[in-house]
Design a protein that fits this description.
Helix content of chain A: 25-40%
Radius of gyration of chain A: 17 Å
Number of helices of chain A: 5
Shape of chain A: globular
Largest sheet of chain A: 5 strands, antiparallel
Oligomer: homodimer
Strand order of the largest sheet of chain A: 1-10-9-6-7
Strand content of chain A: 25-35%
């Protein structure tokens, strides 16, 4: 099998910094984790908060700390530093090669979309952001790595797209319709979701938006691991 | 403009872990850095060393520490922990949006290939790995971000490919010939270089091999940042 992960990420309109931070880290016992945080508000302050959360989680994961413990530690650190006045959402998507599972850790009210075989689910269990109180617990979902698995994780900018004109995006419905028509590559799906949201906001995103798509496909190529980054810059 | 970065990475034959570690980190003042380390020998011990080096460098860069200082700090930490008995190479490729430059930091005898306009260079200045002694200094090369820039960074597995049968790969020549024929996308070039090396080793790589290609192209798409990861897994 091959696990493919794609991310597309755009800033709030006229904002030079995204309050969303995403990083990937290798797991010391095999596999990798993607860590996505969305700091409260937008711009520089939000960026500092989401970077602090991601750094904390990434460094713990790199030491072999379990995902849930890393999320709780980041929450306690944020609560201690900001006294409960600043919060951040957090999603961790881990490909754990030791257990042969995908582990999804969520401190984010925004649902996660999961498609396995014919079954599509939107995980909507209540989930609170980091930093809101002491002892914040993440919602953890674990599943076998199997061909056909499709997971979509996003920050709330995606779900709130279109609200300004009273037409908020029903993310799960849009994903279902995109998957009905075709079998998109992860980057295609991430790009289409992002483009859909940006159109709903009249090409001026009302918030930072990040979309992460994970897909498990049958093994096609060689044994090489690959990564590709595209960074548009002005001027 | 758009900066595109592609990585392709393969383990030594019959080795379940790569001694090479590569991670990307956002720079707090804008842009991002790719950090690539190759720990001495191969397998689990080498992995632990390269992960330690990369973690150290990444966490310092995330705090805003300059690339050269981060490399020196990682070298001192490795020297202190291993008493000079274990070394690691290090390459940092940074897209620094504050200065508008690409900064290449190198503690690695393996040359870096740079193509700007009609000029192609192989940077071969002497450069020692981390952990060899106190006060190891990196070789730092800085250049404007400009369209047409092409940079190739690799671990020594690439340059030593083919040595087993007395036919070591001339990496700079191979890159020149690949660029003469075409204008490859970064992932294509990384894949072709890796495939070339693996063929020289009779499909049984004698060492871990990592190839990183950075290319600056004219702006083609939207403002979104993108990342794509492909992780083949057995079974």
């Amino acid at each position: 099998m091959e696990v493919q992960i794609a991310v597309a990420k755009v800033n709030k309109y006229a904002s030079s910094e995204s309050g969303d931070t995403l990083e990937a880290v290798e797991r010391p016992n095999g596999g990798l984790s993607l860590v996505l945080a969305d700091g409260q508000t937008s711009g520089h302050g939000a960026k500092a908060v989401s970077m602090m959360v991601v750094r904390k989680v990434v460094s713990l994961l790199a030491e072999g700390v379990r995902d849930g413990a890393a999320a709780r530690a980041a929450s306690d650190a944020l609560f201690t530093e900001k006294k409960g006045k600043v919060i951040s959402t957090l999603n961790i998507a881990s490909v754990d090669l030791r257990s042969g599972t995908i582990v999804l850790t969520r401190n984010n009210p925004v649902p996660i979309f999961i498609c396995r075989g014919d079954q599509t689910d939107c995980l909507m269990d209540e989930s609170v952001p980091l930093g809101t109180s002491r002892d914040v617990r993440p919602v953890i979902t674990e599943m076998e790595i199997e061909t056909g698995l499709f997971i979509v994780i996003s920050t709330d900018g995606l779900n709130h797209a279109g609200e300004r004109r009273g037409q908020a995006m029903d993310v799960c419905e849009v994903i279902r319709s995109l998957l009905d028509d075709q079998d998109p590559a992860p980057q295609e799906l991430a790009d289409e979701l992002l483009a859909y949201a940006v159109r709903l906001d009249d090409n001026r995103p009302a918030d930072d938006i990040s979309v992460l798509v994970l897909k498990v496909i049958p093994r096609v190529g060689d044994d090489a691991r690959r990564m590709m980054i595209r960074l548009p810059i002005s001027a």
